[in-house]
Design goal:
The chain is an all-alpha fold. About 35% of the residues are buried. The protein contains 14 helices and no strands. The chain has one domain. The longest helix is centred in the middle third of the chain and has 38 residues. GO terms for molecular function: C4-dicarboxylate transmembrane transporter activity. This is Cryptic C4-dicarboxylate transporter DcuD. It comes from Serratia fonticola.
Length: about 325
């Protein structure tokens, strides 16, 4: 589902209402299920992710699908497998260690679902943007169409189908306002992040920080390795403190091309692990939205959820650096 819902907080809300009861019926402890759900939207290679769109643009890729398939997926998919394996052993260990404390009573009111469900084919609508962006990116590259146009087309199609099914234009116009309200809120957040990132870059440039870093790494052998560790480590630290992954990534991605050019290294070697790190460490921060949402449903402290997510995601963080090092240094 994270392929079509790249937002960690939004996906957590959906999965706590749908997947969580299934995991509990399967005899998984409450905290194990919470830990798994809190880490679902981390580094899945989706072309719908805002961070992937920004990275592809700044790093000079013609289409976001190129960046996702040729670089992101090469690293993220094996890391996801490793995280899954780490989850199995870590959750098993924590359940044994915590015993009955790993099973909590869930507030069922937060898991209520609407009994008036739409037809089953409505499940196809969320897949339309992903399908279109992949098709245009692979087979119709001469047609320049972006994620905004694809999103609006998908919305219009869903609106028309819903209007035909219910036949109430006034109700549909009222319901559609939720789409534009959410889009406006998301847009305002992105604008704030981009403005903040641009301000940071301008400030660092003005004080000579970028030129200083560039001059230091210009003549250093294997400078890309050092830059990868520095930027990934800094991203991990800030994300852990702030709880926001995209804010950190948007702030630093603007710096990468110029510094990488001075160091004569592939900018993807620095930017990609930084991007993956921001998404991985987010679910380790007790102040991140996804951790708080999951913790509130299972009625535990965010720290308890972090205990379940920390080891698998730290393993994923280390694996990300190792795979990136192998992919771009040898």
């Amino acid at each position: 589902m994270s392929l079509i819902i790249p937002s960690a907080a939004s996906l957590a809300v959906i999965l706590m209402a749908t997947l969580y009861p299934i995991l509990r019926v399967a005899k998984m402890s409450s905290l194990s299920a919470a830990g798994v759900i809190a880490t679902t939207a981390t580094i899945v290679p989706t072309p719908l992710g805002g961070d992937n769109v920004v990275a592809a643009k700044i790093l000079g890729f013609e289409h976001v699908v190129d960046y996702v398939t040729m670089h992101h997926a090469v690293i993220s998919l094996p890391v996801l497998v490793i995280i899954g394996i780490a989850h199995y052993f870590w959750q098993k260990y924590m359940d044994k260690r915590q015993g009955a404390a790993a099973f909590t009573d869930v507030d069922e009111s937060k898991l209520t679902t609407n009994s008036q469900l739409p037809p089953a084919y409505y499940a196809l609508f969320p897949l339309i943007p992903l399908f279109l962006i992949v098709v245009f990116g692979l087979f119709f590259r001469q047609i320049k169409i972006g994620l905004v146009e694809i999103t609006l087309f998908s919305f219009a199609l869903a609106f028309i189908v819903e209007l035909i099914r219910k036949g109430d234009l006034r109700e549909q116009m009222k319901n559609s306002s939720l789409f534009f309200t959410g889009m406006g809120q998301g847009f305002s957040q992105v604008v704030v992040l981009i403005v903040a990132a641009s301000t940071l870059v301008a400030g660092l440039t003005a004080i000579g920080a970028i030129s200083t870093v560039a001059s230091l790494v210009k003549e250093v052998n294997n400078a890309g390795i050092g830059l990868m560790f520095i930027f990934s480590g800094l991203t991990a630290l800030i994300t852990l403190i702030s709880g926001s992954g995209n804010a950190v990534f948007y702030s630093f991605i603007e710096l990468i091309p110029s510094i990488a050019n001075q160091a004569h290294v592939d900018p993807v070697m620095i930017a990609l692990p930084m991007q993956l790190t921001s998404n991985l460490i987010r679910a380790i921060s007790p102040v991140s939205a996804v951790v708080i949402i999951v913790a509130s449903v299972v009625k535990v402290s965010p720290i308890e959820v972090v205990k379940r997510t920390s080891v698998p995601l730290l393993v994923g963080f280390v694996a990300t650096l190792i795979f990136t090092l192998i992919r771009y240094s040898f």
